[in-house]
Amino acid sequence: MTAVTAPADFAGQVAIVTGGGSGIGRAVALRWAVGGGDVVVVGRRTGSLEETAGLAERYGVRAEAAACDVRDADAVGALVDRVAADHGRLDALVNNAAGNFVSAAEDLSPGGWRAVVDIVLNGTFYCTHAAGRHMLAAGRGAVLNVIASYAWHGHPGTVHSAAAKGGVLAMTRTLAAEWAGRGVRVNCLSPGPTETEGAGAALWPTDEARQRVLASVPAGRFTTPEEVAESAAFLLDGRRAGYVTGDVLTVDGGQWLGRAVYTDGTRGGGA
Ligand SMILES: CCC/C=C/C(=O)SCCNC(=O)CCNC(=O)[C@H](O)C(C)(C)COP(=O)([O-])OP(=O)([O-])OC[C@H]1O[C@@H](n2cnc3c(N)ncnc32)[C@H](O)[C@@H]1OP(=O)([O-])[O-]
Ligand SMILES: NC(=O)C1=CN([C@@H]2O[C@H](COP(=O)(O)OP(=O)(O)OC[C@H]3O[C@@H](n4cnc5c(N)ncnc54)[C@H](OP(=O)(O)O)[C@@H]3O)[C@@H](O)[C@H]2O)C=CC1
């Protein structure tokens, strides 16, 4: 049996985190750095990536801000190959980059559909394809895909994102089975409403919308990027989660299970 010596020990390991310049991606990158791992954060806006890298370096690790649009398969391939060559290894990939906005399906333009599906579904595949080759060659690695529960229950108003996240879930299970015998684990993390600027602007831009979201969470609160990042660290840690692959860890305060219809939702019994 493998001894567990520290809460999460990523010392000597290397991770790529897409969308690592903000929100959940930044928290995951920093949680990895706290565990002693080197990290490369990927996104389009250099300034926010550099901020994350600067914060990560405070933990004594090597951190890099890499500007790259995950929709560009060639650029993704070149970046991943370069990171693996620079560090001599690649242990983890977190596919966290996403785009989202609320639109009735009948009003959504083909361009709007494509923008979200290209980032979430195609971008995840390009990154996983490029990183997976290095991981398979080394016989070890962990891929973590950040999805949302509407991947399996759907959600009116976000057909592009729900369909793309559903595709990522199917991709996760497919690759988990394809790669399990070769040392590479692939899992999903499904956060509930998390206080980030991106999600706030895209999904609950008004106080009324925010209250509506809050009312949908049985736990009665939003979560934080840091709380989500703890679950990410667990799934990325091969010593703790080494036998977990193809699964989804849902961190949503019970949101997708819904609230009581026959009671006020605060107690299991009568209203
Ligand atoms: C439970 C929750 C789970 C999930 C949470 C999250 O993901 S939170 C994470 C949230 N974080 C983020 O979302 C951060 C990243 N988000 C982004 O970068 C942008 O929001 C992006 C996804 C639009 C991509 O940007 P870009 O520069 O590549 O794209 P662009 O500006 O060139 O537009 C492309 C197409 O989209 C159209 N369109 C755009 N907005 C709207 C709208 N509101 N309405 C309708 N349509 C809209 C636009 O008209 C155009 O279509 P057209 O005219 O060509 O047919
Ligand atoms: N917050 C929430 O309530 C929930 C979030 N999620 C998921 O969590 C993840 C993180 O979301 P959150 O932190 O809230 O949102 P953010 O908007 O803060 O994060 C999205 C990140 O993706 C990056 N990104 C977007 N498009 C691209 C692209 N084309 N290429 C590279 N990077 C890109 C952005 O950086 P840049 O603009 O610089 O490219 C940004 O850093 C997403 O997968 C989201 O779907 C799931 C459920 C709930």
Count of individual helical segments: 10
| Strands side by side in the biggest sheet | 3-2-1-4-5-6-7
Based on DSSP secondary structure assignment, what is the total number of beta strands? 7
So, the CATH homologous superfamily?
NAD(P)-binding Rossmann-like Domain
| N- and C-termini, Cα separation | 49 Å
Large-scale geometry: globular
β-strand percent reads: 5-15%
Order of helices and strands: EHEHEHEHEHHEHHHHE
Number of domains: 1
What small molecules does the structure contain? (2E)-Hexenoyl-CoA, NADPH dihydro-nicotinamide-adenine-dinucleotide phosphate
For the residues shown, what is the average pLDDT?
A: 94
Helix proportion: 40-55%
Q: What is the second-level CATH architecture? A: 3-Layer(aba) Sandwich
The CATH topology is what? Rossmann fold
- The unreliable regions are none
Gyration radius, in Å: 18 Å
Main sheet specs: 7 strands, parallel
CATH class placement: Alpha Beta
Supply the helix-strand structural class. Answer: alpha/beta
Write up this protein.
By secondary structure, the protein is an alpha/beta fold. The chain has a single domain, classed as NAD(P)-binding Rossmann-like Domain (Rossmann fold), CATH 3.40.50.720. The protein contains 10 helices and 7 strands. It has helices spanning 23-34, 46-57, 73-87, 110-138, 150-153, 159-179, 197-203, 207-215, 225-236, 238-241, and strands at residues 14-18, 38-43, 63-67, 92-95, 141-146, 184-191, 248-251. The protein has a 7-stranded parallel sheet with strand order 3-2-1-4-5-6-7, with helices on both faces. Helix 1 (23-34) runs parallel beside helix 2 (46-57), helix 3 packs parallel to helix 4 and helix 4 packs parallel to helix 6. The longest helix has 29 residues, at 110-138. 44% of the residues are buried. The protein binds (2E)-Hexenoyl-CoA and NADPH dihydro-nicotinamide-adenine-dinucleotide phosphate. The site of NADPH dihydro-nicotinamide-adenine-dinucleotide phosphate has 29 residues, from helix 1, strand 2 and helix 7.
